[in-house]
């Protein structure tokens, strides 16, 4: 890089005396293949004398120069920086893609200089804060200075033109950033003022009393407040048609204006006799659109309008059209208002309308809204669903594959018709098809003709022209379609490959937000797309979407490694350091963090460097910062869910009791019942880890739920009591049954470990929930798949089983066994294995055989952790069945049916684990320990040297499956853990067949499986304990295992 003076084109005369501090050559930036032509900047001295056309030309020229320079600087350029000591340094400078910050690489670190912090950018030098005045400097024509808030940065360029381009472009970006920031501030002020005015308008009238103590408002503020409260003026004189137009249009921008929507509801009720059925449906739909757009606070539903609409529909439902019925059902479903009487009348009317309706007069949007309304109301109307299937199949013609014509083919001209009948084609959009398939998946109705037609339309490359305007190139729509089919047990490999290709293409084009990433992660897990590069990329995208850095946001005192010995010492260190790194770190919004944590929990594998910054950022919400209002603490619930499943309590980003305390301080109304049940499960899981001393238990004691969160425990009991009170009504649905079953199964799982694990009030609530479930199941209600699986889990752990409840659960699961996805299939198998050990084994054995048939088809959809836990439960069930006393009806030569089912299931899962050995490296240490204990004890049982045969596999303590989460990511790191776990293992030579006798033919597979388990165990030992003597098992000394569930990816 050469330096030139301003008065000539030759080199500077003083360049030999100038000292340039460099270590080797200057940084090299990859140059583009087409170098940019240096265009001189336009002269702007006579700007006022230029015409409109000339000004436009100058602006276009300046814009092109700025854009070209931005492209170059985004790739990176090398400038010379004048230090405060008078020395020159080569520095690589870059610009972010959003054009908001100027970055410089200094000693391996990237230092950002945001444009919002730049006060001025000018030509020449500014040596105000220099410690040494340099003896000689390059010419002022090659220098520029950036004045920041607290410092000045001098830069030297290779030519005056480069200097002019840099200063001009930086000034343009700084002015744009400053103007954008000011505009944003004004918008925020307007929004805050409008929200304040709306909030004050809803308060008591005592505020406006004559003896008020508030500061009186000015006339301008009162005028602005009136405009905010009444944005459309007086709407009482509007006609019904104008009211509908206002509710569907302009009023949607004022969702929080309670006064406006109350007036609209009142006016719609006043004009109720004038409005038709279709107009009433449109009015309810406008309120439903308002509720769909609001995420923070749920507005109260328009009760009077809904009561009026229900009364009108009861009277005139026979004369309603398909459009009116679809709009009404969708509106009622969006508002979550389920009127059984109204739904029955709609079913009668839909059967009549579907028979008389002409297919050519139906719009696809009507069918999609009809299916969406039925799905939201959980009302599987058979006539309406058959009509939707018939409409889609007829509207989507089969793709005709063009076959090449023969060489001597003859055509009969008399058979060609004179004209073809003109048929109006039905344009089915992708959104309509996806919405219809989602409705069928929610209603758990398997429509094979519909799915076959949709898959044929998506996967056929020859029908591009026939399926217009459907292109199927959106990853969001393909993901929703694949996820809805996977919920019904249909996973097509070509559809999965097409979705993955669309996801990668979309990821290269745009940067998705955390909500889109969560949808991708959830879809990938349901489809069995456990691609490591995809899930690693999703983890990186989550961290970058929250603007977190693995280096800048790592807190040494709160890192997930190198922790003190216990939770008390960790609390002392945390209290000392809360003032500096924890509170000063970046705090992304709680809503974004909540979605990000849910996305990380749905991944199959995640990098430790991407997981740690997100956990630390979420942990900062557990500490209150002085001078700032408390944040939403509900973000701590997904943090607790992830930490309780992945890490020991000593490795959590903050102590366990601090998380429980902060969650208990949150307002109970901000938690849903599902969130309270998840918190109850996490509390039970931490207690069980302490009780069983499994990997991840750590140090410190955690009490039961009533001790950890007394306020939330009381709120959960009150909500469950409200569910039991409403159990006799007609509005008691499957969701409430599932909530009662989930609570009862967690309590029973804790009771099976120790009676001290539950409190008195918690035990009473579980008894009442179990009694309600037995009474409700006696009436034989219609159960969906999720409720049937939850009830099967409750029955398996219930101390007082009911044969009628078991029969109903088995019948529901057997009828829809093909619709089970991977998660529900695993939970159903484990629950059936536990229940089959009891007295009602004859009821569960046929269901287990059907579930094994389905497991053979869907083994590839299960994660590695789930496969290993399934193996453990199959082996325990087979061991428990073999220990039973034989009855005269079942001679010794006829084995127990449960024993046969357990062996067959274990064989199915072990075949996949033995074939794909890398799966064992992706399981947690606790699951590996349980499987090793069960298989080792079963091998000891077969030892001929033992005189007394014992049932070792049955008495191994394992974690109750009801306490485990639905998904557990595999965390990858290159660091070896430091905590150790002692576990005694058998040597490799003594691992025989544990499925039966050695003549069963599976001795080699059992030996290979046992050997793979022990190899994985030796691999996870601490490096200092990996000795050949211990590996060979010459002595029965215990092996030392790492208790950290994180795997090491360097050697796996």
What this model shows, in words?
It comes from Cladocopium goreaui. This is PH domain-containing protein. α26 (734-753) packs parallel to α28 and α28 (785-797) packs antiparallel against α29 (803-815). It is globular, with a radius of gyration of 35 Å. The chain has 1052 residues and is mostly helical. The longest helix has 42 residues, at 160-201. The protein starts with 19 loop residues before the first strand and ends with a strand. The chain has 36 helices and 13 strands. The strands form three sheets. Strands 1, 2, 3, 4, 5, 6, 7 and 8 form an eight-stranded mixed sheet that branches. β2 and β3 (88-95) form a beta hairpin.
Content-based structural category: mainly alpha
Describe the largest sheet.
Answer: 8 strands, mixed
**Approximate helicity band:** 40-55%
Bin the strand percentage: 5-15%
Instruction: Report the average pLDDT across residues.
Output: 76
Radius of gyration based on Cα positions: 35 Å
Count the helices. How many? Answer: 36
Q: Quote the distance from N terminus to C terminus.
A: 48 Å
Given the C-alpha coordinates, what overall shape results? globular
Unreliable runs: 1-26, 28-35, 204-213, 399-407, 552-584, 695-700, 944-954, 976-989, 1024-1052
- Total number of beta strands: 13
Protein name: PH domain-containing protein
Organism: Cladocopium goreaui
